[in-house]
Specification:
The protein has nine helices and seven strands. By secondary structure, it is of the alpha+beta class. Strands 5-4-3-6-7 form a five-stranded mixed beta sheet. The chain has a two-stranded antiparallel sheet with strand order 1-2. It is globular. It starts with 17 loop residues before the first helix and ends with a helix.
Length: about 300
């Protein structure tokens, strides 16, 4: 019986295109404006938005990221407005962000007045947009834990911060909050795929034993380009779909992001029809997500 030729693996192409770059710029502006309006609405900024952070703390966290970002991706040297985070950036992992980087930022950036935070956020996003008006969205920059991301990926990350933490605050004050699928999709295409393509550095490091073997997960959505993420003996990569996958996931981007950041559970997402998992070995998904994970 002749041997079957293995299906070739082709590394995933970049998802950074002029169209996606324009979408990322528009998304950060629109989501930023809505987030600024939202925090001004909060009747009690001291009310808890998450288990650990008040509404004011959450707003300061998001605003602080936006304030530092133009200095990170400026082509001319600029000091970080919150310089205390700089020493922690090269060594942080997804497991130490909450105990290392985020507390430093919140201690160093002490503003908690919602109106002033809203104004600071709007100014910071305007700075992000003006600083990058003529920039190459595919220019790769160093990010947390020695990872590498294109400029467009940082805009997608900022948009996701606004959308997910806006969801936290809106729940706390009992007001609706939209997470548009097209905006949420930028996080998958421009952040998740690109950080694995370009190198995630130490970001996924942990002290758990390396799981032997290979797990391939194909992601499909009406709002994103198809991609297959592969975990092979503890090393993650991303390839173009070729039919060789253990798990298939069909998702709506807003729901996937809320699941990845543990705002809603897998069962709730599956029950709504927004997240469907199947394939020849779907039981391997928890092992995959223990390595390829969010904070």
């Amino acid at each position: 019986m002749p041997q079957q030729t293995p299906t070739p693996r082709v590394a995933a192409a970049t998802r950074v295109t002029p169209q996606r770059w324009a979408a990322a710029r528009a998304a950060v502006q629109e989501a930023g404006d809505r987030f600024a309006d939202l925090i001004r609405l909060a009747p009690d900024p001291a009310a808890m938005a998450t288990k650990d952070w008040s509404i004011a703390d959450t707003a300061a966290h998001v605003t602080g990221i936006a304030w530092n970002y133009p200095a990170l991706f400026s082509e001319t040297e600029r000091p970080l407005p919150i310089p205390e985070v700089r020493p922690h950036m090269p060594t942080v992992t997804v497991d130490t962000i909450h105990t290392d980087l985020n507390p430093v930022q919140l201690r160093s950036f002490t503003e908690r007045d919602p109106a002033r935070l809203a104004d600071r956020l709007r100014d910071a996003i305007a700075d992000m947009l003006s600083t990058t008006a003529e920039a190459d969205p595919g220019r790769v920059l160093g990010w947390l834990g020695g990872s590498q991301l294109p400029l467009a990926g940082l805009f997608a990350h900022m948009t996701n911060e606004l959308l997910v933490h806006g969801w936290d605050i809106a729940r706390a004050i009992g007001t609706p909050w939209r997470i548009p699928e097209e905006q949420a999709a930028l996080f998958f295409d421009l952040f998740l795929v690109e950080i694995v393509r370009n190198g995630y550095g130490k970001l996924l490091d942990d002290d758990r034993p390396v799981r032997p073997g290979r797990i391939a997960v194909e992601f499909q959505s009406a709002y994103t380009s198809p991609a297959t993420m592969v975990l092979d003996h503890g090393e993650a990569s991303v390839v173009e779909p070729n039919g060789d996958r253990d798990i298939r996931i069909r998702f709506r981007p807003a729901t996937l992001n809320l699941v990845l950041f543990r705002r809603i559970g897998h069962l709730r997402a599956a029950g709504s029809g927004a997240l469907t998992v199947w394939g020849r070995r779907p039981w391997l998904l928890p092992a995959f997500l223990r390595k390829v994970r969010m904070p």
